[in-house]
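Dear colleague,

As promised, here are the two records you asked about, laid out in our usual form so they can be pasted straight into your sheet.

NAME FIELD: protein one
SEQUENCE, THEN STRUCTURE:
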Amino acid sequence: MGLNIKLLEDSFELLAPQGDALVERFYDNLFNDYPVVRPLFENVEMQEQRSKLLAGLALVVANLRSPDQLVPALEEMGQRHVEYGAVEDYYPAVGATLLKSLAEIAGDAWNDELEQAWSDAYGEISKIMLAGVAAVTI
């Protein structure tokens, strides 16, 4: 994938103890910055949703060195998101929100190198998820 896997792993290891705060900030930021997505979560138990997001981030980071396992999981995740009402236009909003939330939680540890590593990772993740969507909509 051409990602800075070591940096992603190391930074997530530092952020993981603050995982609950990270996903809380993520949804706060998402709903504040992109209210258009709020209806997707009307019938969702948000504590469960936050747990799913944190588990998804952990899954991705844990499998960055195993694309043969990661790619199918992300393709399936993309397919599930279609069922929830997510559309391709929402992916940039989610990426921007993820970066913003990571930076907030990381505080002074956040830098341009981390921003680039996570931005690159999200770009790859979204491409794979959207490929999964395309596979079932063709």
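NAME FIELD: protein two
SEQUENCE, THEN STRUCTURE:
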Amino acid sequence: MLPVLITDAEFARFQHFIFERAGISMSPAKKALVSGRLSKRLALHGLESFGAYFKLLSDGHHPDEVQMAVDLLTTNETYFFREIKHYEFMRTQVLAARSRPTPWRIWSAASSSGEEAYSMAMVLQDCMQTTPWEVLGTDISTRVIAGAQRGLYSMERGRHIPPDYLRRFCRKGSGEYEGMLLVDRALRSKVTFRQANLNTALPELGQFDMVFLRNVMIYFNNDTKREVVARVIATLKPGGYFCIGHSESLNDISTAVQMVAPSIYQKPV
């Protein structure tokens, strides 16, 4: 059976679909990605065109399929300790605050499959003594949130985990799990994952000492960036830190935080 091809008109419908639900602006270069990620859904439903699949998503009778399509179109690859300088900065701030009585709270605002949130947790567990801490990971995709809660990854995704952390906080797979690592149960129990759409009003999350919103804004137009950043910064405590991707910028996006290092900002006290 020949693969189903997506037309320009069909792709334009999915561009609008994902912008409306997630605020993501997909360039024409993403046409092959859309086709590749959704083609199995067409086969599952016995559909012969992407137009027919879009009609199924739009009929109001398949909310689970709508969430599946959102999941497939918003999932991005990540790995442990990506952009290590943010974790080094985080470590210095955590060490400076480890004697305080209140919990140190960090939010991985686009946690994808969870590696960022667990990397945060490893640093906190290593640095904190008597101070309690909390890590929250959120993502628009319920599918990747479910995977993050398992804490099971390929060893390749963990290639940047410091060797000491790998020994202390991960379990090496064997047998059918050969080539895999499992985040230790005790560490997993301290990390909470929940679904949240940054493009809409946020659920009640509380206030944070530090928020990572990295390598996400590149998918938004400037208006959406301003709205998302404003929502996220509102959850920062005065003096809290906001980290974005090294290829991203807050120029013309927000003046609510001040740069203290490349890609690291602080909310005024």
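A couple of things worth noting about protein two: The first helix runs from residue 8 to 22. The beta strands are 104-108, 133-139, 152-154, 170-172, 180-183, 191-195, 208-213, 236-244, 258-261, 264-266.

Best,
R.
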